[in-house]
Amino acid sequence: MTAVKISIATLAMTAAAALSAQAQDSFVLRFNHVLGPNEPFHQGFLAWADRVAERTGGQLQIEVYHSAQLGVEEDIIEQLRQGANVGQNTDAARLGNYVPGIAVVNGPYMVADMQEAFALADSPTMQGWIEALAEDHGIRVVCFDWVQGQRHFFTNRPVRTPEDLDGLRIRTPPAPIWQESIRALGATPVAMSFGDIYTGLQSRAVDGAELVYTNITAANLNEVLSHANETGHILLVNFQIVSEAWFDGLPAELQAALTEECRAAGQETSARIAGALEEAKAELIRRGMTIVEDVDIEAFRTAGERAYEVLGLTEARAQLLADMGR
């Protein structure tokens, strides 16, 4: 009888240990982004979550939160640096607050097109910056194959040259490369959260914004902006980041699933956005927005050089361009 009791107890302990191990092997990433639920990126993030869940048999779950439901971007980045199981869609401008060189990806006329953005993963210079983010700042870049498209100036008057931006207060995210880029291109940068742009324009706290076409349609910003000026001054490459400590605690197969499915979903979403941008532009024309296409791109390109000089990023830019064969 005693042996039977011991056997039953042993089985119970084994089962409990197995359940405990199973629980420990389940991971959840709470992923935050500032865009609305109608944005193409949100649908792309949901697809990323589905693919990871399917590939890992539910071991790794990604919960996607739109419209900054978990908090503003800068706060989420600080949380993940402390090891929290949160992730954030961000950009090179904000990452440049930690590793200055990487900010050049967000500079004026730096990345030419989507394929060039994807090829950045092969750059030794870029890989060095990414490792510095992980080792020195606790930020793990999962992937950066999410290209949101060319950003233009959206205002209430036509803009064809840098001089036309003189005196205009343009909303930007709060990062040095972004602010200096907009200043170099001729406007006065005003740091403001994405969700505050509509009311900021209504109250005339700002005179315009620099965004992609799909941002305008999704947030109905055409109601407070009349002109789309096709400067194409930044091709916005987005980075998906998580805690390095949290990432390091994942089994190798889950790390691979998170990273590889991030790249796949990002490239597919980027391709869809390329088509969606033209659709959004057509929709804005239907809504009455004036499209200014005869922009002096060379004048803007020349003006944009100033941003790299002011921030001391000329050498970092040259290194990355060399890696890219330009």
UniProtKB/TrEMBL annotation:
Pfam families found in the cross-reference section: DctP
Any GO BP: transmembrane transport
A GO CC annotation given for this chain: outer membrane-bounded periplasmic space
Primary site of residence: periplasm
Keywords: Periplasm, Signal
Signal peptide residues on this chain, from the entry's feature table: 1-23
InterPro entries named among the record's database cross-references: DctP_fam, TRAP_DctP, TRAP_DctP_sf
Gene3D superfamilies assigned: Bacterial extracellular solute-binding protein, family 7
Subcellular location: Periplasm
UniProt entry tagged with the keyword Signal: yes
Keyword Signal set for record: yes
Protein name stated in the entry: TRAP-type C4-dicarboxylate transport system, periplasmic component
Protein source organism: Rubellimicrobium thermophilum DSM 16684
